[in-house]
Design a protein that fits this description.
Strand order of the largest sheet: 1-2-3
Radius of gyration: 14 Å
Number of domains: 1
Low-confidence stretches: none
Strand content: 5-15%
Mean pLDDT: 93
CATH topology: Arc Repressor Mutant, subunit A
Helix content: 40-55%
CATH class: Mainly Alpha
């Protein structure tokens, strides 16, 4: 199932243990983020995963940014 607001990201309990993936693939969002964090460029990723697009890589970054943002809870 694709996630609301993230049509290129899907979550399916039967694929990659329910971790977020690029829709229609078994490539986890975390795989793309890890590659980028270790210095891979978008061009490197697309060369290694020719079935992905630039939009897929950007979708992973957008999804990660949305998940990192959260409400701040202050103790009374």
């Amino acid at each position: 199932m694709t996630l609301k607001g993230f049509p290129r990201i899907s979550v399916d309990a039967a694929i990659c243990g329910g971790r977020p993936t690029v829709a229609g693939t078994r490539v986890r969002v975390s795989d793309i983020l890890e590659l980028l964090s270790h210095g891979a460029t978008e061009a490197d990723i697309l060369a290694d995963y020719p079935y992905l697009s630039s939009a897929d890589v950007r979708a992973c970054l957008t999804y990660a940014a949305a998940m990192a943002g959260h409400s701040v809870i202050l103790a009374a």
